[in-house]
Design brief:
Elements: H1 2-12, H2 17-24, H3 28-36, H4 55-67, H5 79-89, H6 97-110, E1 126-138, E2 141-152, E3 157-163, H7 168-182, E4 188-191, E5 198-201, E6 204-207, H8 209-218, E7 221-224, H9 234-247, E8 253-254, H10 257-264, H11 268-272, H12 283-293, E9 306-311, E10 317-320, E11 324-327, E12 336-341, E13 345-349, E14 355-360, E15 368-370, H13 377-382, H14 391-395, H15 398-405, H16 409-425, H17 428-461
Parallel strand pairs: 1-4, 1-8, 4-7, 11-15
Antiparallel strand pairs: 1-2, 2-3, 5-6, 9-12, 10-11, 12-13, 13-14
Helix pairs in contact: 2-3, 4-6, 5-6, 16-17
């Protein structure tokens, strides 16, 4: 272009075409062509097809990529796998991996096999919800658990809570704890289609009853992604990975999951001090805009508990989640028992709807039997002959166990009856302490009584 402009300027200055051709060392036809041309607008570039050393292999590469349309997406050909197959099946193949990678990417784009997404706009007060998975040392045992994550795309702030599973009780408890921590309720919550609160099947939304109650209580709007559409909630997808890499490495250790979850809520503060990855602002400042858009918390707290009536087996156990058994009372065997199912506990009620026993809730594919032998005391009082093989005997301290083993049948019956009475009145731990103190006093009094009798006989002999 600089030469064209110089030629046109020279002609405009009065130079002859023959002189211009000599000065610029070009043919006169070239000079006339540039002088006659009127449109110098940029033209749309057209791709230039050039021969490539990859040409002999392109048909095979295309067939491999096309055949993946009917294969699970996790087992489709990557560019690296295609490159390795070419090397394995063609001894003469010597091209580089980037050459193959560029062609695979271009072919997928041309055949529309690469998904493109529309960037969504998220307003303050809107949140996304999803579960992640990580290992934790709970009371010294390594257990794989789920963690619920709530992410606010507007500010990129997020919060997590750890649970044993992805049930509706876990989701509702996690949301409740996070709502109370941030001091408000998001206007919209976007859920993955696989969470325990509900799922979207076509245009139909099916929600768990407990979650429906919670949604009515807190008045937020729930939306569900399409199946296999993680891009619809990319903020929380990224947040789940961030939390696993930064908060759960090394593997956390705790004794109480409830205490650990309370401390976990404060863990967002370190990330909140950073600048937003796209916006020229600090995350915690942007989250103030999220908080300003939150709805107020309801006046009454929501009780996250699902109440059901379950049939107890002949041992007085009820089954929950198909493979986890929890003891009630032996006298409840064969009857319907009211059970309260919570995120971390299972509550069992008696016939008067009074709480009688609380179990730690179990999760996982392996069967568990959760026993509370304190509920068997009333039955043991009637059948004291089972004392040696009872679970209550295994729960009490060794010295108290030894003292009770030495009692006769009637004394043992009265002691068990006392233990049952004190347990109902106070607690099992308090009852055990009272019996230990009673046996210590009884032993001391018995020893003193025997000592006095011996001393008196010595005096009488003298």
């Amino acid at each position: 272009m600089p030469e064209i402009n110089d030629i046109r300027e020279a002609y405009a200055s009065g130079s002859r075409i023959s002189q211009i051709a000599r000065d610029f060392h070009v043919d006169e036809k070239t000079v006339r062509k540039y002088l006659r041309k009127e449109d110098f607008s940029p033209s749309v570039p057209s791709p230039e097809e050039r021969e490539s050393k990859l040409d002999p292999y392109k048909e095979k590469i295309q067939s491999w990529i096309d055949s993946d349309n009917n294969v699970w997406y996790k087992q489709r050909h990557s560019a690296k796998r295609i490159y390795n197959r070419l090397k394995e099946e063609h001894a003469e193949f010597s091209l580089s991996y980037p050459t193959v990678q560029r062609y695979v990417k271009r072919y997928k784009i041309e055949t529309k096999q690469v998904k493109t997404y529309q960037e969504l706009v998220w307003h303050p007060g809107e949140a996304q919800v999803d579960f992640g998975e990580a290992d934790f040392y709970e009371q010294g045992v390594c257990t794989r658990k789920k963690y619920l994550t709530v992410s606010f795309p507007h500010s990129n702030d997020g919060f997590s809570q750890v649970f044993g599973g992805e049930t509706s009780e876990c989701v509702c408890q996690g949301l409740k704890d996070i709502f109370e921590y941030i001091g408000g309720v998001p206007t919209v919550l976007v859920f993955d289609n696989a969470t325990g609160v509900g799922r979207r099947i076509g245009e139909e939304i099916r929600e768990a009853h407990l979650f429906q109650q919670m949604r009515a209580h807190y008045r937020f709007i729930a939306r569900y992604c399409n199946p296999d559409s993680g891009h619809e909630k990319g903020s929380v997808e990224n947040k789940v990975g961030y939390i696993r890499r930064n908060l759960f490495v090394p593997v956390p250790k705790y004794d109480s999951i409830e205490d650990y979850n309370r401390h976990l809520l404060d863990a967002h503060q370190a990330k909140a001090k950073e600048q937003h990855y796209k916006k020229p602002a600090i995350i915690e400042d942007l989250f103030l805009e999220d908080q300003a858009a939150l709805m107020p918390l309801p006046t009454h707290p929501f009780d996250v508990c699902r109440y059901v009536y379950l049939n107890a087996d002949s041992y007085g156990k009820v089954r929950i989640d198909d493979r986890h058994y929890y003891s009630t009372c032996p006298e409840f065997g064969g009857t319907e028992v009211l059970v309260g199912i919570k995120a971390h506990h299972i509550e069992v009620y008696d016939e008067r709807n009074v709480l009688s026993v609380v179990h730690r809730r179990r999760f996982g594919p392996v069967r568990t039997d959760n026993l509370d032998y304190r509920t068997t005391l009333a039955t043991l009082t009637k059948n004291v002959g089972a004392w040696r093989n009872s679970g209550v005997r295994e729960m009490i301290p060794e010295q108290l166990r030894k003292n009770m083993d030495e009692l006769c049948r009637e004394e043992l019956r009265e002691t068990v009856r006392t233990l049952s009475f004190l347990t109902d009145r106070y607690s099992f731990e308090t009852a055990v302490q009272a019996l230990e103190e009673g046996f210590r006093n009884w032993i001391v009094n018995t020893y003193l009584d025997s000592f006095l009798k011996v001393r008196q006989s010595i005096f009488d002999g003298c």
